[in-house]
What we know:
The protein is α+β, with helices and mostly antiparallel strands. It is 46% helix and 14% strand. It has ten helices and ten strands. The protein has helices at residues 18-42, 51-59, 78-91, 93-98, 111-122, 246-283, 295-323, 329-354, 365-375, 382-393; strands at residues 128-131, 147-151, 154-165, 172-178, 191-197, 207-211, 222-233, 237-238, 285-286, 289-290. The strands form three sheets. A four-stranded mixed β-sheet has the order 1-4-5-8, covered by helices on one side. Strand 2 (147-151) and strand 3 form a beta hairpin. The model has no long low-confidence stretch (mean pLDDT 92).
Amino acid sequence: MRQLSPVPTILPSVYHSEERQAMLEVVRDLAMNQVLPLANKLDPVQGQIPDDLIETMADMGLFGILVDQEAGGLGLGVFEYCMVTEELARGWLSVGSLIARGNGVTKTFPAAQQRELLPKIAAGKWLGAFALSEPEAGSDVASIRTRAQRDGDEWVLTGQKMWCTFADRADFLVIVARTTPFDPARRNAGIRSFYVPKVRGQFPDGIVGTPMRKIGYHGWKTWELAIDGLRLPGSSMLVEDGADDQGFKAISQVLSTARVQTAARSIGLARGAVEDAIRYAQQRRQFDQPISDFQAIRFKIADMVSQVDTCRAMMYQVASDIDAGRPVDHQASMIKYLASEMSERVTSEALQIHGGAGYTTEFPVERYWRDARLTKIFEGTSEIQLRIVSDRFLPRPAKV
């Protein structure tokens, strides 16, 4: 049976190089032959990513894509980071997200700390988790209430964090807290990040973790963290120098890359759904012919492929602009918004093509659909992305 892949096997000429093409093919082989079978086996029973897959990814250098070669990384750019992410997410969103536990986590760390930690991170031996969101602060970072108070030579942190994925299996946490009381007139002031090393598989004294019950993203646990009197050395604060809003600005800068990577994750999910829909449509017969012969199905697939390719083209562009040092704040929000919205639409259409079979756990399309819904929420909701983009082209309202 004639069946063509909806994804190009060769990178577009403007982005192509032999090194990138080779990397693409190696990671695609990993995703399709190791990651996808694990997803099909483990996701239905909410099983987590096994350690041996993490070790395989570490051996391939995937946690050090953005780490300089001098520190043991691959010394590549956001383009390669997103290219790899798409391939892994096509197999399993949880694995497509896993490489973020190394790449870019330490961008706001002081130079001395980076020199110490980056070799371990690049080798996959020291992976982190990011604790930012709270019950009343997610998209609105400036509303965080977790407090960090000085006590002699130590910091004492107290508060509550939500949606901290991989917190249990991480080797360190980065916790965002406020060093001054919340001031509505200076909402960005006093926000700082703190480095918290820990034992893999445990939480340090002063933190109690409760796993959150999710409808998808089952490859790892996501945690609510109750922080009560967590004591840290005075040197734990990251980016101590600069203006009192320096910490807020540092977090905002990291989010641009995270949003483009989320677009790559969304594209990978949608691509998986399209590939499965094409395969199913050619196998499923009604009225004595495969349903892929019906114009309604053919036009659905044509539209789905067009949406995936369009988002990938913009994702490549924005990632390349980041690598070139260009400011991309609103462009990153654009592609995060477009790709995540696209992913939900495309995975839903793929499920529709499967008919009743799509509403069972017998086919992986339902996993793509559940996971795609998350991409509209994490790393900033679709509504927040639209606000960022509209603020770029319209005067900000006096009061939201």
